[in-house]
# Entry
Amino acid sequence: MSRTRTTRRWRGVVSISLVAMTIGVVANRPDVLLVSLLGVVYAAYPRLTSPPEPSLAIERALSDEDPDHGDPVEVTVTVTNTGDRPLPDLRLVDGVPEMLTVTDGMARHGASLRAGGSTTFSYTVEAKRGTYPFDPATVVSRDLSGEHEVETTVAASTEIDCTQGIEGVTARSQTLARSGQVVSDTGGSGVEFHRTREYQRGDPLNRIDWNRYARTGDLSTTEFRTEQAASVVCLVDARPAAYRARPDHPHAVALCTSAAEQIVGAFAADRNQVGVAAFYDDLVWHPVGMGPTHRASIQRLLTTHEAFSSKEPDETPDTTELLADLRHRLTERTQVVLLSPLCDDDIVETARRLEEYGHAVTVVTPDVTGDETVGQRLASVQRAARIRTLRGAGIPTSEWRSDEPLEAALATQGARAHSRGVPA
# Structure
């Protein structure tokens, strides 16, 4: 969409020319009259020109499309005049993602382009965890007189993906009757010893305990814990209370979205069914499923939906109503990975109720609290109390600082659960 407007940069010339013309006539000064006529010509020229009609194409090249957190990424932008008219005054501001910081160079550029001509400029941003699509570039084009200008946008599909896959992501023991990589509590053929039972006709010979038979003469069958698939929904807390951030760090919703992308990828790689939901102004929902097409659909939702952006909802939703809607959509054996900064008690109650309703819940909570003010310290204490409440209810809770990899936080929680004999 384009907007055309006039700059009125020649408005003062008209007034000065009329005054000079009056002085030239009254004072019988031909030289002054000639200058005034010249000013009238300059003032009339813009009215004889038409606004520019920019036709542009933009390309972005990234020095690293899959950087690590904190890495510099050089962005090279090439703008081409694809029209048949020159653009004498072109000014462009690139659509840098709001959460990224330009550390070197400038994301704006000015040039004059002939028909078919191109111009290139570069700048550097610092990568942060998450996926960051670029917005369309904003372009302002003026005609030769500068009287008319046209503002438009030019888009190019570009994104920085700083969501490296994580290892060691495990679901809790609530599984589906389908093969996967989550160790279940049911017996069968698998990788971990479960129990022995009395031999039944038809049992495979390779699972008969022949050592016991040699000792006692009794036939028994060995069972192992089976590996089954899990059905997992990543629930992102995107309510107004979650839009909190430490200075110079992404806000919690951006961190939770980044974690959701990584966790979805990890579960999908292990052949689990996975879906995504968010508490925003309403419930955002993507049903569980599996396969490359399904994962690509989740990625589009996480990239394009406003619930996973920097736009805070206008009103605070009723968490109880969102929970009821979510429960209606969850199947009986679907477990939930809740991603939230735990900034209020409502989201803690949501996790506890989901657990009580039979959905195994795991919480990943980015730490966006500080200790510089009394208010920040109080928020930190309250968050710690909420974490203790969740763990006291048997809900595994991983604390995650934005300056550490998510994998490290999950590994810490896994070690804690193992030391206490609690299944992850």
User: Anything to note?
Assistant: Confidence is low (pLDDT under 50) at residues 175-194, 418-424. The first helix runs from residue 11 to 26. Residues 234 and 337 are 5 Å apart (CA to CA).
